[in-house]
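hey can u run this one w/ guanosine-5'-triphosphate bound, need the structure tokens asap thx
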Amino acid sequence: MPSRYGYQPCREFHAVVLGAGGVGKSCLTAQFVHQEWIENYDPTIEDTYRTQLTVDGRQVMLEILDTAGADQFVAMRDLYMKTGQGFLLVFSITSRSSFDELVSLREDIIRIKDDENIPIVIVGNKADLVDQRQVDRARAFAISQQWQAPYYESSARTRTNVDEVFIDLCRQMLRRDDYHDDSRADDIYYQKAEDPSSSTKKKRRRKRKDRDHRCIIL
Ligand SMILES: Nc1nc2c(ncn2[C@@H]2O[C@H](COP(=O)(O)OP(=O)(O)OP(=O)(O)O)[C@@H](O)[C@H]2O)c(=O)[nH]1
Ligand SMILES: [Mg+2]
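ok here u go:
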């Protein structure tokens, strides 16, 4: 997308992958970054990846923090949430409790970031295990609408919707960056304006575009 500012430098973003233990956070990340499938379960303490990608024609350097789902590392979550600019909230469609955990994760993110509009993608992973499904699509989509965050069903095993969830998150972070750039540009414009009470100038202030709430399935 051409910018109103012309040259677009590479943007750097910090994404954090959160969710209960064993839902497939590391497998999704490994598939996205290295296109590899990991069969064995090796619980994570903390892993960081860096990868460059193009999103809508724009260069993005993405740092991905793959976090621990295990409860003994929960104390580190506040720090992850502080530094993250976008969050993948991952559950397994085969585990109702992993879905329920997302509620408190999102509440913590909003509290720590003090921001209700933080970029979030909800990911129902292990979608290949259809026979073991415990979370209906309708239930997940209801949360997606309530939170105004897109919902994807993914499978790290079959590499379904793996790129899509990370790209969607990058797109949200880019949009947010653009919005802040526009706000800054508008603020400078206001400071320069001779008559700050002018109603025509006030109309230039941009409103945040409606957030997407989509349900993307296999
Ligand atoms: N069938 C299936 N199995 C998966 C999928 N994703 C992950 N798994 C398996 O689930 C197990 C746990 O996956 P991980 O990616 O290690 O889970 P995690 O969320 O990183 O777990 P923690 O690091 O403990 O928080 C592994 O044995 C994976 O092979 C998937 O999409 N489909
Ligand atoms: Mg892991």
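Residues 19, 21-27, 38-41, 43-44, 68-70, 125-126, 128-129, 155-157 surround guanosine-5'-triphosphate (ligand 1) (CB under 6 Å). anyway lmk if its weird
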